[in-house]
Amino acid sequence: MAEKNYIVKIEDAKNFVVSSMVAIGTQPSHAQALADVLVLADQRGHYSHGLNRLEKYVNEVKSKSVIVENDPFIEKETVSTALVNGNNAMGCVVGNFAMSVAIKKAKEAGVGWVAANHSNHYGIAGMYSLQAVEQGLMGFSFTNSSPFLVPTRSKERYLGTNPITCAAPSTNPDDPFVLDMATTAVAQGKVEVAKRKDVKLPNGWGTNSSGENCTDPREVLKSGGLYPLGGPEETSGYKGSGLAMMVEILCGILVGIRGLVWQ
User: Fold this and answer.
1) Distance CA 116, CA 256 (A)
2) Percentage of the chain modeled with pLDDT above 70
3) 181 Cβ contact partners less than 8 Å away, ≥ 6 residues apart
């Protein structure tokens, strides 16, 4: 059966997300922040992180693993740096707050470095680097995540998809440079999309429980994991493993996390 395509207006998509989240107790401003990042993901072609992710956020709120009444706050700061306590709020709320602090510091001191802890999944990383571009600045954003990467020469998940993003203004305001990528071969959500469509994965995306190449999305999600960026060792996957570890150091160890405890 051929796939059916539907056209949904951007505002209608955002309103759907907002109404869904408000219905389960989310603050309207927090629900709007989530709507903005999910719809932007779909607009930019990151379908793995768009409305595909809404169910995940609904479940987090219902299970109280995310506290929708909370807001992030600055725990300590210097002229050009800050540590933000996410207060277990929604990740997109924490991401917006942290980037706004970084932008303010960059405008005042020339550079702003902000790290956050006690946060949650914040959507596409590019959402936040683009906020800096809108202010005429270059923006970076990184985040660690639950283990799903099987490092080179391993057969078990250890690091997350740990995305990195860099965005910079250009002479064309509508066409800035934007790098937004996972440090795994692909984002986990792309495997989830393949599962929903009941299609096989390309070689080099995921592994089975023995660390071997696997094209079955169900097996990759259940007992396998993702190759690092670059794929297996023969095609330089160890570089992706190294980048993922760099993000873990910046976003985990640097902010006080002791050990990889994400689940």
Assistant:
1) 10
2) 97
3) 163, 164, 165, 229
CA distances from 121 to 31, 34, 137, 143, 146 (A): 14, 11, 24, 9, 9
CB 49 within 8 A of CB 78: no
Over the stretch 192-249, which tens digit does the pLDDT of each residue have?
A: 989 989 999 999 999 999 999 999 999 999 999 999 999 999 999 999 999 999 999 9
Q: Is the dihedral of CA 115, 111, 100, 243 positive or negative?
A: negative
Best CA proximity match to 31, nearest among 96, 79, 85? 96
What pTM was estimated for this model as a whole? 0.91
Distance of CA 21 to the CA centre of its chain: 19
Q: Which residues contact 20 (CB under 8 A, 6 or more apart)?
A: 31, 54, 58
Within the chain, residue ranges assigned H as helices are 10-22, 28-43, 54-62, 91-109, 126-133, 188-197, 217-222, 237-248
Number of Cβ within a 10 Å radius of residue 59: 12
